[in-house]
Write a structure and sequence with these properties.
The protein has 560 residues and is an alpha+beta fold. The protein folds into two domains: 39-270, PAS domain (Beta-Lactamase), CATH 3.30.450; 373-558, 2-Layer Sandwich (Heat Shock Protein 90). It has a five-stranded antiparallel sheet with strand order 2-1-5-4-3. The chain has a five-stranded antiparallel sheet with strand order 7-6-10-9-8. A five-stranded mixed sheet has the order 12-14-15-17-16. Helix content is 49%, strand content 21%.
């Protein structure tokens, strides 16, 4: 369905845009609210679990304190009497009761206290003992308070006391009140949810449902201590819940437990009001959309008339300049504007493309022109040296000279490429220096240092030879000396250095702007301009020199 009037298109576009904006805002609000709520629940739950960890540890500490009071030096005689297997049973039982009474067993924390000495058992309130196999861990870690298990509604801790007081040997069990533990483990109560303590193997240490205490539950799908700290949404007993899991770090580190605290929170308690809030937001958004549509209709009518008049004016002005028929279909007031705009953009695009092509051609010609300006005197001098060698019939020298010259020009031409490997650039320099050594034997000692890792990098061709030619020509004033040639990587760049220990000079500010062959020219301009044109600003040559000490020319290029 096509709409010919711009006002209709404007209204529909505006309404569609508003609908999209409101949809995005509602989605952002919903997602942002959920993320914020989840973060708040996660932080508050972790904080609550840390406090619970400390509180449970304090309760467990009561067993350690009670053990310390039982083992006090003032109780040594009573301890030894209880441990004396040859003493009368009644006397030993009386000593046990006196000992526990003196140590102060608080009923708030302890359901029972029990001594196991050999085959004899002394219990304060006659609680059923844990399974004997649970004592094995006490024997493996003597004189250390450990978790033994759960008996009825008691959490049992034990310690194998071995030689602490005058050779006393026996097991002391502390029956902690699991009800007391359960109260502390459920600061989250009522509609919010509940918390419980579980070992990493799924064994329930303390739970609001006492039928689960001392049992192993399957936790791979719901409770996962391995993912601690964990936060996820699960369905438990048909109710959508938030499960927060965190290891009891303080309790575990102090007493060697392997426990975590699990909080199961009612999902609807936290997110139940979200649906109501979202409904209110939707109603408000719809009302705002209706108001916006009314405003859009009024504004569209005011806007469409000036655009229609402008379209007619532009059409009348641009029509005489058109060189081809428009392929756009007839339509509303904006079609004429679109036709004229398309023609203008076509012409601008053609001009931009032509300008780009001209600039690329100019850049290529400049590079080729600069590369062709390499001083040809080296070729002439070499050929002259070959002629001179031929006249005095030094055939081996002629062979070396010609082979190095051939190698130099093979690398120099390199199939017309303007890039070569760094290793090829160094090889070309070596051939050039061999020729110079034949022409001027013993004049210069050359030291070449190229890091192996840079040999395969590509570089602009014929960078070093003009610099070395300058050094041989000006550095030694007819005498002899050393020439150091280095190639190394620096980050994403390649750095060449040509350094001599010759006479040195005062470096003029415009040394890189002076062409070779003029007064004061050093022939470095072409090399520097080639590097600038290829790599841009920040790359090129730098020259440093000191009279009597020598000169160093550094070339910086970018890795390709």
């Amino acid at each position: 369905m096509k709409f010919k009037h711009i006002s209709t298109k404007f209204i529909l576009s505006f309404v569609g845009l508003l609908a999209a904006v409101f949809s995005v805002l509602i989605a952002v609000f919903y997602v942002g609210f959920r993320i914020s709520m989840n973060n708040d629940i996660r932080r508050s739950s972790f904080s609550m679990q840390e406090e619970l960890d400390l509180a449970v540890t304090d309760v467990i500490n009561e067993s350690a304190y009670l053990y310390g009071r039982i083992m006090a030096s003032s109780n040594v005689e009573l301890l030894l009497t209880v441990a004396d297997g040859e003493a009368d049973r009644a006397r030993r039982t009386e000593s046990f009761q006196t000992l526990t009474q003196r140590a102060g067993v608080e009923a708030e924390y302890f359901d029972d206290v029990e001594f196991l000495i050999g085959e004899d058992r002394f219990s304060l309130r006659g609680s059923a003992p844990p399974a004997p196999e649970n004592y094995r861990v006490l024997g493996e870690h003597k004189n250390r308070l450990l978790y033994v298990g759960n008996v009825e509604n008691s959490l049992v801790l034990g310690i194998w006391s071995s030689g602490v007081v005058n050779g006393f040997e026996g097991i002391i069990l502390f029956y902690m009140s699991e009800s007391k533990m359960g109260e502390m483990c459920n600061p989250v109560s009522g509609e919010e949810g509940y918390s419980f303590i579980m070992r990493s193997d799924g064994y329930i240490v303390s739970h609001i449902d006492k039928s689960l205490v001392g049992k192993v539950i399957v936790f791979s799908d719901v409770y996962d201590p391995a993912a601690s700290p964990g936060y996820k949404t699960e369905t438990i007993n048909g109710m959508k819940s938030i499960v927060v899991t965190k290891r009891a770090e303080t309790l575990n580190s102090r007493y060697g437990f392997d426990s975590c605290i699990v909080s199961v929170l009612d999902y609807s308690y936290y997110f139940g009001e979200m649906d109501t809030t979202l409904a209110i937001v939707l109603c408000v958004s719809f009302a705002m959309l209706v108001v916006s549509v009314i405003i859009a209709v009024v504004r569209a009518r005011r806007i469409s008339r000036p655009i229609k008049l402008l379209s007619e004016s532009i059409s009348a002005t641009a029509e005489p300049t058109r060189t081809h028929a428009s392929v756009l279909p007839a339509g509303d007031e904006l079609v004429q504007l679109e036709r004229t705009y398309d023609d203008m953009m076509d012409r601008i695009y053609d001009l931009v493309e032509k300008t780009k092509e001209d600039m690329q051609l100019q850049r290529r010609l400049e590079l080729e022109s600069l590369q062709m300006q390499i001083n040809p005197h080296f070729l002439y001098n070499t050929l002259d040296a070959i002629s001179w060698m031929a006249r005095i019939k030094k055939q081996s020298e002629i062979d070396r000279l010609v082979m190095n010259l051939a190698r130099f020009f093979r690398l120099f031409l390199h199939g017309g490429d303007k890039f070569v490997k760094v290793s090829d650039e160094i090889a070309m320099v070596k051939s050039y220096l061999e020729i110079e050594a034949i022409r001027h034997p013993g004049r210069v000692t050359v030291h070449i240092d190229m890091e192996e890792t840079i040999g395969g990098e590509m570089t602009l061709k014929l960078i070093l030879q003009p610099i070395i030619e300058n050094a041989l020509k000006y550095a030694f004033d007819g005498g002899s000396g050393n020439l150091y040639i280095r190639a190394r990587p620096e980050g994403e760049d390649i750095v060449f250095e040509v350094e001599d220990d010759g006479s040195g000079f005062d470096v003029p500010e415009d040394i890189l702007a002076r062409p070779a062959g003029v007064e004061g020219g050093y022939g470095l301009k072409n090399v520097n301009e080639r590097i600038h044109l290829q790599y841009g600003e920040g790359y090129g040559l730098t020259v440093t020199s000191e009279k009597g000490k020598g000169t160093c020319v550094k070339a910086r290029l970018k890795k390709l």
